[in-house]
Automatic annotation (TrEMBL):
It comes from Alexandrium monilatum. SMART domains: SEL1 (SM00671). The lineage of its organism: Eukaryota, Sar, Alveolata, Dinophyceae, Gonyaulacales. This is Sel1 repeat family protein. Belongs to the sel-1 family. Residues 1-24, 238-261 are annotated as: Disordered. Gene3D superfamilies: Tetratricopeptide repeat domain. Pfam families: Sel1.
Length: 261
């Protein structure tokens, strides 16, 4: 079975087309926090506010009592370490497994990602990673859907299924993830329509999904997307409806608006 390299994990379509194509809107090209990193940031803020080993004990007590969110938070704290505890990979996986058993979809996504790449005490297990992503997606997790789309596109843990079926499933989950607000999926779906990969070229739909992604990008920032994305999206608008066009056309996406309308 073909395995993708680490470089391919950043997107569904690692091979890009000619540089003459429209650039990615700057607001969308900025690094974003993965869900497990964001959750860890939330944990770190709470840790900074507490700052005592007693607070860690309270968190552990809540986790021991069966609180899935506490189990996830404790797992993340042991995974990355903090001001009140060193990283303890085995403890981390123990509590993440508990959170998964408790039905927490965020924990499923975190553990699925760790199992896909392998980390510390966790050996890579692509099949279990896929199963966790499926479970998270079934629970409504957009990040789980996003992981499924990538897994099917790059044949990660999906078994020997016909290429046609595999690509169909990749597209299905890509669309679901984008519709449910997964930023990366929205960008990848826009790229697919812009470049004609997996889906037929469609400038109007490419623009729609770039706009949705721009609205999703950096929810913690109050300024940067609003300053950058309107100008970038205007380039896409010009590319999808050049001079003399009676309707939007995908041809100009190979370059600038103009001939080919």
């Amino acid at each position: 079975m073909a395995r993708r390299s680490r470089g391919e994990a950043r997107g569904y379509f690692p091979e890009r087309g000619p540089s003459s194509r429209l650039p990615m809107p700057p607001a969308l090209a900025r690094p974003r926090l993965a869900v497990w990193q964001f959750l860890w940031l939330c944990t770190a803020v709470q840790v900074a506010g507490a700052g005592t080993s007693g607070a860690l004990g309270q968190l552990r007590e809540a986790a021991t009592s069966g609180d899935a969110k506490a189990q996830l938070q404790l797992g993340l704290e042991y995974l990355y370490g903090s001001s009140r505890t060193v990283a303890k990979p085995k403890e981390a996986t123990h509590w993440l497994d508990k959170a998964v058993a408790g039905g927490d979809t965020d924990a499923m996504v975190v553990l699925a990602k760790l199992l896909r790449e392998g980390s510390g005490a966790i050996d890579p297990d692509a099949r279990r990673s896929l199963q966790l992503a499926e479970k998270a997606a079934a629970g409504g997790s957009a990040e789980g859907m996003d992981m499924l789309a990538e897994a099917y596109h790059n044949s990660i843990g999906v078994g020997d299924i016909p290429d046609k079926k595999r690509k169909k499933l990749a597209t299905k989950w890509l669309k679901k993830a984008a519709a449910n607000g997964a930023f990366r999926a929205q960008v990848q779906l826009a790229d697919s329509y812009r470049e004609g990969k997996q889906l037929a070229m469609d400038g109007e739909l490419a623009l729609k999904w770039y706009e949705k992604a721009a609205a999703t990008a950096d929810p913690l920032s109050q300024t940067s997307p609003k300053k950058v994305s309107p100008q970038a999206l205007e380039l896409i608008r010009k590319g999808s409806a050049g001079p003399g066009c009676t309707s939007r056309n995908t041809e100009p996406f190979e370059g600038s608006a103009g001939p080919g309308c």
